[in-house]
Here is the input.
Amino acid sequence: MQTLIKDGHVIDPANKIDGSFDILINNGKIEAVLPKGKSSIGKIKDVKIIDAKDCVVAPGFCDMHVHFREPGHEYKETIETGSASAAAGGFSTVAVMPNTFPVNDNRSVTELIFSQAKKTSLVNIFPIGAITNGLKGETLSDMGELKESGCIGYSDDGKPVMNSELMRRALEYSRMFDLPCIQHSEILDLTLGGCMNEGIVSTELGLKGMPVEAEDIMVFRDICLLRKTGGRLHVAHISSGGAVDLVRQAKAKGLPVTCEVAPHHFTLTEEACRNYDTNAKMSPPLRTHKDIEMIKEGLRDGTIDIIATDHAPHDLADKQVEFDNACFGIVGLETALPLTFKLIDEKVITLQKAIDLLTQQPCRIFNLDKGTLGVGKDADIVVFNPNTKYIIDPQNFKSRSKNSPYKGWKVRGKVIHTFVAGNSVYSAPNI
Amino acid sequence: MLLSNQNILSTKELTKQDIEQILDTADSFKEISTRVIKKVPTLRGKTIINLFFEPSTRTRTSFEIAGKRLSADVINISGSSSSTTKGESLIDTARNLEAMNPDILVVRHKYSGAPALLSKFVDSPIINAGDGSHEHPSQALLDLLTIRSQKGELEGLKVAIVGDIRHSRVARSNIQAMQTMGIKVCVVGPPPLIPVEFKYLGVEVSHNLREAIKDVDVVMVLRIQLERQKQGLLSSLREYSNYFCLTQESLDKARNDILIIHPGPVNRGIEISLDVMESKHSLILNQVTNGVAIRMALFYLLLGEKNANPN
Here is the structure.
């Protein structure tokens, strides 16, 4: 059975395609990308037609930073529910962080993730292995074994690697495997007990702040190490304008550093924490307008390489508590596209560039043969209508958790279909 | 409801009118506490729950006496005896209490924002009796009452607040309430105890006690905790006292009619010397007396018009 995605506007940065094309899928692969009207359907037997009129057709999005909580905290999210959330957000590929219980710091956990993914996942799942055993920041994980079992990067995400000597060795050792070390950049001494950005709002609310310097210093330290160690540093969820500057300078010197930004860090500020809204509690915290402006500049000039959501689902029981005691993070996958449209509407980046940041660029950094509509590649495809306007309602999320500060936001950009290896894994209701 | 808000969570939410009404009402209640029979039937049949998740003697007792002088039934639940130690969440505890139909919940909690969180889940009015480093509105109101009783007017006064501004809910509540009433505020202490952001709150910042209190009408001294030394915010209490303890000496440039207040409990000899504490300038015990009147006023105003006759 073949599928033809017809009459859409195809944007595929990896192949420099931007125009009206039809896409023919056969056997889970891209069979052909045909100029509009050139596909003679009559000749193709048994073809399913997907009408993509008024829609953009792009490679399925790739999110290199999600937390699916399995194994260990399945009440927040599982690989199955997380993958449904991804599919609904237009993502066909995700990389899952290792801060599960047990931690993904060895082959058996990686294999468990793959076997669960095979049984239950709607999208492609790639595990990220821990940098240090148990995320304890004491000893290096078996990075070779993790890569051989299928991990595509290393991270202690949720925690930084505080010990400079250990981080130095991690960057050195990871060089053997050519996978990036993803740092959650935070100097813990400065953020101890902190639960939001340190600033006027934290002062007024009487909450312990997490100063922006905690992020800047760690990014600077890692960049310093990089000169000698080699290896590849990927700065996770950059939230500080100062850190964007540091990455820009490092790139100018030719150092192998890349970074990502999460949509909440270019759409919300610390002001969202007022009234003690725990859905605005994240790590790194929501910062200030100035940081957002500097992040946008980083997106404009290419300092920021990719958009990743830091999808961090939490049950109501973990959020409906005192601000100090609430867990960090929000559901990210199902709001990423409409929030990215805010950047497009503000003319920070073009739609083409936005798709690049969600497809080709993450796959470049993580060596994945994804994020492309090249002929013969897996048919991982998203079809979205850029002009459909709607109001975000977290109750409609496919994620098991509903923690989102975007309830009630008026947005545009709606995912209509998501395909993984040619199979439809999501279709918007009422289509 | 006679105030612009159904809860007292923060002085920021109180208008000038609200504050004046609370102070006036408290003034009229003061006399009740001096009677032989210190009780009026105003809130008979009303139930007030004091929900204290953090130890407190003065504030809890003050709220309890205030309720009882108005004939309300007052129930005290402290952190250790409540179900939260059995893993029941704050919200569950409050919802269960609310199911027993109280009329007001008075909440003290170690975490900033806990009373605000509760207010989203219960219908009863909530009075914040101190939440983390956030606010302690009834303390600020009793401070204003104490100052007004002496000075007659609040508008145009200058107040210095000395001590651990960073962690002080009393300072935050007072700064906002005082600014609303047209009082100029200066905060005084070593830089680690005054976040740089305070200058954006419209207060003056000083690190020199003697200079800062030179021409103020009132100096408010805050309790300093030894714990801050472990956090690296203080070198030692000894050195803190050298620079910031309010002594007769430090008052030598101050006005003759300067008023001294302290929210208590006092560390004698650390933030304030014994002689100053017991001098004619000190209003520390007046504050305690006024605390009862302020809390009576809050109960009365929150429970509204149904009880139009305060006597």
